[in-house]
Amino acid sequence: MLSEIRTLWEVFKHTFTKSETVQYPEEMPYLAPRYRGRIVLTRDPDGEERCVACNLCAAVCPVDCIALQKDTRDDGTWYPEFFRINFSRCIMCGMCEEACPTYAIQLTPDFEMCEYDRQNMVYEKEHLLINGVGKYPDYNFYRVSGLQTSSKDKGEAVNESRPIDTKSLMP
Amino acid sequence: MPKIIVDGQTLEVSQGENVLQACLNAGLDLPYFCWHPAMGSIGSCRQCALVQYQNEHDTHGRLIMGCMTAVTDGARFSMDTSNAVEFRKAVIESLMLNHPHDCPVCAEGGECHLQDMTVMVKHRDRRYTGKKNTHRNQYLGPLIHHEMNRCITCYRCERFYQNYAGGTDLGAQASRDRLYFGRQTDGVLESEFSGNLVEVCPTGVFTDKPFLADYSRKWDLQSAPSICGGCGVGCNIAPGERYGRLKRVHNRYNHEVNGYFICDRGRFGNAYVNSQKRLNYPGLQMPDGRFKAIDHQAALSRAAHWMKNKRVVGIGSPRASIESNYVLQTWLGAKQFCAGFSEREGALTCGIVEILQATRAINPSIKQMESADAVLVLGEDLTNSAPRVALALRQAVRNKSIAMAEQIGIPEWQDAAVRNLAQDALSPLIIVSSAATRLDDIASHVHTLAPNDIANFGDVLIEHLRGNISEDVDIINIADCLMTAKSPLIISGVSLLERGILDSAAGLAETLYDHNPHTMLSLCAPEANSIGAAMLSHTDNLSLAQITERASDIDVLVVLENDLTRRLDPTSMQQLIASGTTIIALDILENETLNHATLALPAASFAESQGTLINMEGRAQRFFPAFKPAHERQPSWQWLLHLAALDGHGELSKIIHFDEIVHACAQQHSPLARLTEVAPDHSFRRHGQKIPRQTPRYSGRTAMSADLSVHEPQQPKDLETPLAFSMEGVNQNQPAALKSFVWSPGWNSNQAIQKFQAETQKPSVGVSSGIRLLISSGKGIPHTSTDRTAFAQSNGWQLIPIQCLHGSEELSAYTDEIAELAGDPFVALTESCALELQVAAGDGVILSSNNVNLSLAVKIVARMAKNCIGFSAGYTQTLSLSAGSHVQLQRDPNWRPFKPLVIASDRRPNAQLRHNRHG
Amino acid sequence: MVEWTPVLLALGILLGGVAGAAILTWWERRLLGFWQDRHGPNRIGPWGIGLVVADMIKLLLKDDWVPPFADRAVFIFAPTAIVVSMMMGFAVVPFAPDMQIVDLNIGLLFFLGMTSLAVYSVLLGGLASNNKYALLGGLRSASQMVSYEVFMGLSLMGVVMMSGSFSLVDIVAAQSDVWFCFSQVLGLLVFVVAGIAESHRLPFDLPEAEHELTAGFHTEYGGMKFAMFMLGEYLGLMLISCMIVTLFFGGWMGPDLLNEWLPPIIWFAIKIFFVINFFILLRAAIPRPRYDQLMSLGWKIMLPITLFNLVVTGGVLLWIEETV
What we know:
- The complex is a heterotrimer of chains A (171), B (919) and C (324).
- With 171 residues, chain A is α+β, with helices and mostly antiparallel strands.
- Chain A has five helices and six strands.
- Chain C has one domain (65-323).
- In chain C, helix 3 runs antiparallel to helix 4 (107-128) and helix 5 (132-163) crosses helix 6 (168-174).
- Chain C has 324 residues and is mainly alpha-helical.
- At the A-B interface, helix 2, strand 2, strand 3 and strand 6 of A face strand 6 of B.
């Protein structure tokens, strides 16, 4: 009985507290930089697409709303031929961002993605790709990967030695 | 059975196996790299370390390598002791020192044994701060991609390529941490089995190049159990699909047939499924010769209109399934049906069936062939006509070394020891052929004879064995080899289109059987279902010749998956077309027959339909669709059922489902009675569910087709098979015939296969894949001493068909990479013959006779029967050449090489093909 | 003039009741919002009051649908019963001196009778829906009402004893010195609990119990018929509030010293306002008990308290009588 009365009193005290609600359209809430909103694909510091189409984001996506197809550039580097996110299924969980080995896929603090037609919630690569590096300004996957690219010969990646000459007789 | 104790757990193990095998068989996760179930142990990677204890009081123990230690009764081991755990972790850490940061851009990622093992030993952080070694890659041809940085120097590639498959152009170079696996110089890998490097390599050094170009992760592939249609061997494969395209083909373990390996035709030759030459819609030929696409209703009603009260004749196909052939034959009746063989091919294939049904000798599976200790090959270049058999023979010749090792107590899996002991000692392999073969390097005796003489040679050998002692030293030697062998094997086939060879092979086996009941006889059939079509055929059947001769009496001709230009000579073909018969042709790809058809119906390929194929040993195996056929494509049996129903066929119009065809066929054809047991029918359920085609981590279901419509379509229903187009269901412990992909928790690579086997290298769990339908009555074949005419010297050169792994088979030749490797059609000459004609390799030679005038490139071969020349069999340009006929040769002064069909490197970007997928 | 007053009053109650119920829906949500640190409805009109109109438009425009599997006649009848019976209950409420439709000498019993009739609405609605949730809701409602009816009546007997009349006018008059809320604390407590249970509002809304029974007895109802149930509920809330004020808080009388400051009807309204707010606070604060807890509370705690109160009141009255 006393606990009920105390409850009533505690609730009643809230008559005089400030409301937590943010009057959204008139008043914008503060969203942290790591807020999980609309997904973007970023570019590396050299302006190339960061995504290497490794498919990890698609694999980890709990609602399976990411589909992509790998293609190869002339120099052998990988990139997505298409990259599609069905935002009408996306739950903004951020697991794709966690899985991404190249920091390509990132979530942004933008959540205002209402559409009258659900079809418009399907984003293709041209809708996702931004002209920026996002949260990780310095990272370029191909500088650390062992793959040879047009801008980097074998052995020129970070922490790599020159290619071995197998015909050498040096000890 | 000996027992060993691992971490207090008592394991029952098989005598003679090693501790690694024993642990894996018991379901323990012991990491390994260099050991391979088919290739044994060399103990080079040090990954499968355990601690062995002397007795129960021993607490210290000593580190041993699981793969190098034989099990002994009562031996005590520990996997979990910190000593062993730390050691294994340290080994991985050092293997990873030079491994590049490549996983996201590596085609092995997601099915990488190295990834699995790294996770298994819980190695995570790189402590070494020094630089990583790097290597330059090599160009290894259109099939295999090389990325040497990733190598962990387990030596598996070299051991497979050289020791197992007999290749010579890939091996280890340099030493210590500079070790390099590759060729001397860039170039196309020569081995016919190079594709297996993709599966053998535990990481991404060798990857599937065509797959890499249109890549999807393993977890994203929708797979189904399937059978390769490339030749008569019937290897088990697992095609993987995504976005409606066949992405790759992987080996599917079948203990009796292909085991762990398939050939390059089987692995890479199936991309014709994605070809732009595929038919999408039924095509109606317009008066101007062009085809108009119509829908299937219109096509069927038109066909029904033509067939009404008319004489309809059907032509079956040795590459179509039993079920499709059965429906066509049942619909039109045996008297209006032709099995689809050419005259010679039909006689030979039926000959194989007759021999195998009567012979007392064992008709061996490929696994059994590996146990033969003397082999006689009559008239076949097995590496090109039945490649997987050739690979088995490469293992069979090692039986001598294994026997030597056994004598001094070395187990078979001690691979390096066995090879060191034996050096070059090989079991006898006798090759009698008309031209050089790819097995010549391991042959003990090689004889080069014209086709007719090969048969004669066999007969002489028979006579010798029967007591009419020959004076020929070779004959005596060969006879000795065969007589002293514990299980001799005679292999022959139809490549040379010479019935006499089959008969003498059969006679030889029969004669040997009198001495040795372990004698084996194996006969190679040309196409995937040749034996099936022959078993289904009836004496009332028409022959192709009868059809072409009386073509004008036939109103409608239904051709099932058969390009008649490959079986009829050009004049007969012309006769058929000119007769004005309405041709309804079903096929997978555009071909000459289809171009002359009045109505072309698009058939589903092996990857989109199901059916049963009977391989050369008479083993019936079922293939299942990996994905639903797109557009208006339908499996042939479905087209034929529709046509039969419209034609008012009583029995067939009641049939709707595939399983009903199987039951009807099994009932009506007593040799095929066990067809129903080949694989479980559509009602099969495991834990109340169908077997999934998709992996548990299949991704993108709600986005794959969202560009077309955001409203996700329901997954396609599969009413015909026990498999589901879904990830739901249990992919564990199902019958081997329904194993759509191999995956087990923690084992993402194809090494997961051991989780599906009772023991490594033993049959998969559940029903063995395939049912032997060709059972010999054991009556034996009465010996008739035939007097064959010896090779008669006539004016001109006798034509010998040369089978080519790449190019000779009809469908795989439509695959770009295969077409590139096949190269130009050629005429094969020996060095001396070329000198005589004053030509060198690559020059042109004109072949001329009464009805042929053809210019071909010259290819020099090491040996060729006297007065014979070879020609590339099965190439479209050489279809007009007839085996055994005679031609005149002359240097072509105006020689210009054939333009290559396609260059694989030009093939990308074929984005257009992919964008067309929904069109 | 004398004949017309009750008629006008009745019309006033009818309109006022409906309007009051409508405004209560908004006020309740608004208050709940405040107590939960939200704003509550604040978008339509000033302070969101336009929501009342929006709700009405919505309810009126909804499809008037009767499920094909329901018992049509009873299904339609059920929601009207609760509104009618609750409206009837207002007939005996003395809003102010001479401001009463009818002063029955058994006014209190009439009120109890009318609230008891409301159970039929819920029970019939539940049964007629032919839906298992609705049926369960109806059954719960029946047993809950029957149980709480017992001591609801008994709890008022103390008041009756002290005032010596069933007439509500007399009862109000009897409180001119001391409100019964002081002398009948236990009676008040039990009556409040029983009153909530009778009007099946939270925390005693087990017939509705959306967690277990989707929406309980009115699962199948929509549009105006649903609105009638809601109207009945809010009318019940107001009626119980009126009765609490009348029986325990001196009805239209203000506190002694302030009595003259405001007219009686305003005093009555102010008291009602507080009681209603208290009910809403209960809803905001107290979670719904389990069904068996509800029944054991009724029979094992409330009933003994009531009987104790009855005995003590009677004893005290007799003692006073004897001493005086």
